[in-house]
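[Automated response] Your request has been received and processed.

Submitted sequence:
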Amino acid sequence: MIAPEWQYLLSPWALGLLGLCIGSFLNVVVLRLPRMMEREWTQDAAAHLGDAGVLERSTGLPPTKAAPLADQIQKLGELLDKQPAFSLVTPRSRCPKCAHQLAWHENLPLLGWLRLRGRCASCKTPISVRYPLIEALTGALFAAIAWRFGPQFQTLLWCGFAAALVALAAIDWDTTLLPDSINQPLLWAGLWAALLGWTLPLDQALIGALAGYLSLWSVYWLFKLLTGKEGMGYGDFKLLAALGAWLGWQMVLPIVLGASVIGAIVGIAMKLTSSLREGRYVPFGPFLAGGGLAVLLIGPTRLLSWWLGGH
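Generated structure:
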């Protein structure tokens, strides 16, 4: 039995408030993690290409041209190394327009944005409504998970699962990136949770991870062989593998079909309204994440009953 104080802390109201705070942190992750990744990639590339021998071998340039180019790349690497620290906690949150550093009360989930009326306190630049929306969405998901699973410790696991999916969906929508730094821990956490008996039987989780990865991997290569183009990224394979590890192999096909239908509808709507981004594509990750959250909240048993035409 869960102690009375834990029952209160794991109630929909309490976890909903926690979700608002986690949503505020997810806004930081969504904004900063892609930039951190880009900086790391650029530093790695500069360190690698700053070697004249590497440039000669990889580009075929003669030594007389490779050496000065390598020197310039080394200077770029030195410049990057001198940049101020940039992480999820450094520097503190600030306005991107005027660099006004946000006070603690301006950072309060939902209330801070409402109090500021959606504008910077210093320069009055509008603050995107997406910030409070992500906070509200995460809070609502945490409350719904608490209502769905009740006051048990596994409820916190599913809240973490939902938070990771919200972050992945938002990052993929913005950048078409699904970071391994979230995808891979999500996959391993699902397998460990199954191993410890907290979610699924371990065999269902393992088969779910394999089915998730290999199904989209097969579609990717079939599409590439037929068209010569890449229809999706490897991050989508890893995300579906993680969903399979958490929700089981039976849910892989419903998630993919649901994500495909909704993604197609959204893509057509964006095309009709001329809002497709450059390259005329819609990332698939947000719809996979949405499918996973729908399965979680509806329940695999009920979804399978609908899927098989039961009652």
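Summary generated for your ticket: Residues 217 and 237 are 6 Å apart (CA to CA). The chain is about 70% helix and 0% strand.
If you did not submit this request, please reply to this message.
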